[in-house]
Amino acid sequence: MSKLVLAVEGMSCNHCKMAVETALKSLAGVDTATVDLKNKTASVSYDESKCGLPAMKEAIETQGYTVGV
Ligand SMILES: [Cu+2]
User: Fold this and answer.
1) Tell me, what's the pLDDT at 27?
2) Residue 47 C-alpha to ligand 1 middle, in angstroms?
3) Distance of CA 11 from the midpoint of ligand 1 (Å)
């Protein structure tokens, strides 16, 4: 398992947190996704052979948020 911390802009409440976490967890290969609203980050554990940053970025941006990293 690999770990990645993404900087996510635009999250303001628990709904945003859930939307981003759900979007990430729906990706094949993502094990856990945890959003820290205060730090505006999403920590992701994932299988590198199945998933990567471009897919995560797309999943988050589809929800209306911006990925800084
Ligand atoms: Cu919100």
Assistant:
1) 98
2) 28
3) 6
- Domain with 30, as residue range(s), is 2-67
Domains: count for the chain: 1
Can you give the CATH number for the domain in which 22 is found? 3.30.70.100
CA 20–ligand 1 middle distance (angstroms): 10
Structure confidence by residue, pLDDT tens digits, 10-64:
999 999 999 999 999 999 999 999 999 999 999 999 999 999 999 999 999 999 9
Residue 42 and residue 40: Cα distance in Å, rounded?
Answer: 7
Whole-angstrom distance, CA of residue 1 vs CA of residue 25:
14
CA of 26 to the centre of ligand 1 (A): 19
